[in-house]
Specification:
Elements lengths: L5 H4 L12 H13 L5 E5 L6 H13 L13 H4 L7 E5 L6 H11 L9 E6 L6 H12 L5 E7 L7 H4 L3 E4 L5 H15 L2 E2 L1 H10 L4 H12 L4 E2 L1 H8 L4 H12 L3 H12 L5 H21 L8 H17 L6 H10 L6 H11 L5 H15 L5 E3 L2 H22 L2 H11 L9 H7 L3 E5 L3 E6 L2 H9 L1 H12 L4 E6 H16 L15 E3 L7 H8 L9
Parallel strand pairs: 1-4, 1-5, 2-3, 3-4, 6-7, 10-11
Antiparallel strand pairs: 8-12, 9-10
Helix pairs in contact: 2-3, 5-6, 8-9, 8-10, 9-11, 12-13, 12-14, 13-16, 14-15, 15-16, 18-25
């Protein structure tokens, strides 16, 4: 006996077996009951939502000799011979989209049905037809013979000419809900004696993104390679990510467990997990939590506005992923931007990540570790407020100094070299930060770098001394750098234009110094604060 794949075997053959699409079913059945059947219909919606299946059920019910409440009886000659009926013509417009094929169709339209009430043409993927083919079909749709009905299906309604749409009754098919997909998956597993866990059924439904055909195809494939379908089978085979992993990651963010977050992202980078599935699931988790914050009183380390900002940042990551870098690197940088780092977590995480042969850096790490373990004595440190003030002042000064000596030839020369930065010997973590950035202004002493995301600009500026040293070596000249978000750059550029028009003359400014204060390390400390006490400021590399 010929094996039938699940999506064909369980294709509905009556309106009562069609899952979901309640509005479309009701309207089509009402048309049959009232006898008010149009000459042309168009079904539109995402793939695997039942458009073609519904078209066949509708065609069967139209030609049924004794329909019951708008449903085919299944007993008459027309119903029994439906699959082999010469009066039901299925056409794939993807492969029969030329004007010659349509003209042949038009000639055959004139021939009366052989044994049925109507000759019904089901045209799948109708948007694939050429413009000439649509024009040839137009007149027939305008004045068709009384015995002909057209049922068209498309996943891209925007590509169908309005002249065609205006002559059809339109029905929009929606994606199936998770509950509808899970219910059908469990039903098929029952019929086929397939063992499947609840988590696995939910994961198949999620991966299918609302498409029943995709869900049943995936189930069919998994059932042939495993006695029991488990969540582990799906995660390992299809690059999916468990909800438990997502929840654990989000909880680590809420708890500010930096080292755990880094470990999870390292796991993601080394896996074959699809970053798009990760982002969608993570956003779903964030949205649920944001709704909870709005509807319930709940203390949280992240505010509603921060979660909203993170959702938009993740969505931006999906649109801006560069094929030259690991997508999870960008996502990791975004996520860490929303974590309030505890001293021990961040310090030990960074210390474990440092791999360097620089003797100065090794000494710094060694002394930092000693001080962190024995910090009874008060030390001088830079407060967060002072550091923030310093970075803002530094940004203003370097932008000013760049505008003071900015020339187009400097900019052109550096931009030409910038195109080769991805293949330079600069460390990968710095390349990942700079890959979507551009040089937008340059003088012989200063350079302004623009990034699309504000969070990326902040991360670059936090490491601007280290990054600047690598870039000076790359460009083979001494330069000072600063990063601005695209929004900041547009504002600075407009302010520059306004000042020049008003006769303002830029002057070179001295760069600011960090203001230090004395406090106890037990109360508040960090790697860079400890380093500032032990070493000269110009020897410190902030990471």
């Amino acid at each position: 006996m010929e094996y039938k794949v699940f999506y064909r075997k369980y294709r509905p053959d009556s309106f009562k077996n069609i899952i979901g699409q309640d509005y479309s079913k009701k309207m089509l059945q009402n048309a049959i009951k009232s006898g008010k059947i149009s000459h042309a219909y168009i079904f539109t919606g995402p793939r695997g939502t039942g458009k073609t299946s519904t078209a066949k059920v509708f065609a069967k019910s139209i030609n049924c000799e004794h329909p019951i409440d708008g449903e085919a009886c299944g007993e008459c000659n027309s119903c029994k011979n439906f699959l082999s009926s010469a009066d039901i013509i299925e056409i794939d417009a993807a492969s029969n989209n030329g004007v010659d094929e349509v003209r042949e169709l038009i000639n055959n339209v004139k021939i009366a049905p052989t044994s049925s009430k109507y000759k019904i043409y089901i045209i799948d993927e109708v948007h694939m037809m050429t413009q000439s083919a649509f024009n040839a079909l137009l007149l027939t749709l305008e004045e068709p013979p009384a015995h002909v009905i057209f049922i068209m299906a498309t996943t891209n309604i925007e590509s169908v000419p309005i002249t065609i749409l205006s002559r059809c009754q339109r029905f929009d098919f929606k994606k199936f809900t998770l509950d509808e997909l899970i219910s059908q998956i469990n039903y098929v597993c029952e019929q086929e004696n397939i063992k499947i866990s609840l988590e696995a059924a939910e994961e198949i439904a999620y991966i299918s993104e609302g498409g029943m055909r995709d869900a049943l195809s995936l189930l069919d494939q998994l059932s042939s390679s495993a006695k029991e379908i488990t969540i582990e089978n799906i995660l390992s085979s299809y690059g999916s990510i468990s909800s438990i992993f997502i929840k654990k990651l989000f909880q680590n963010i809420l708890d500010n467990k930096v080292e755990e977050i880094l470990k999870q992202f390292e796991e993601l980078k080394n896996s074959s997990s699809d970053y798009k599935i990760f982002i969608k699931k993570f956003i779903q988790e964030l949205v649920q939590y944001a709704i909870t914050l709005k509807t319930e009183y709940k203390s949280s380390s992240l505010s509603y506005e921060q979660i909203k900002s993170l959702v938009f940042a993740l969505n931006e990551c999906m649109n801006r992923v560069n094929i030259n870098i690991n997508p999870y690197t960008l996502i990791e940088l975004e996520v860490l931007n929303y974590v309030e780092n505890s001293v021990d977590e961040l310090t030990h995480a960074k210390l474990n990540q440092i791999k360097t042969t620089d003797p100065i850096q090794e000494v710094i790490v060694e002394h930092q570790t000693d001080v962190l373990e024995n910090h009874d004595e008060p030390i001088k440190e830079v407060s967060e407020d002072n550091l923030s003030t310093y970075m803002n002042d530094l940004k203003q000064v370097r932008v000013n100094n760049c505008f003071y000596g900015a020339q187009k030839n400097y900019l052109t020369e550096l931009k030409n070299l910038w195109q080769e930065i991805s293949i330079s010997p600069i460390p990968d973590d710095i390349i990942n930060l700079l890959v979507d950035s551009n040089i937008v202004a340059a003088s012989d002493t200063n350079v302004i770098i623009s990034t699309n995301l504000e969070s990326t600009a902040i991360l670059i500026n936090k490491r601007i001394q280290e990054i600047g040293e690598y870039l000076c070596e790359f460009f083979n000249q001494e330069l000072s750098f600063i990063a601005l978000s695209e929004e900041e750059w547009q504002k600075e550029k407009q302010e520059y234009v306004n000042k020049i028009k008003s006769g303002f003359k830029y002057q070179m400014l001295d760069e600011p110094d960090i203001v230090e204060q004395t406090s106890d390390l037990n109360q508040d400390t960090s790697m860079e604060k400890v380093a500032q006490e032990l070493f000269d400021h110009d020897k410190i590399e902030i990471i």
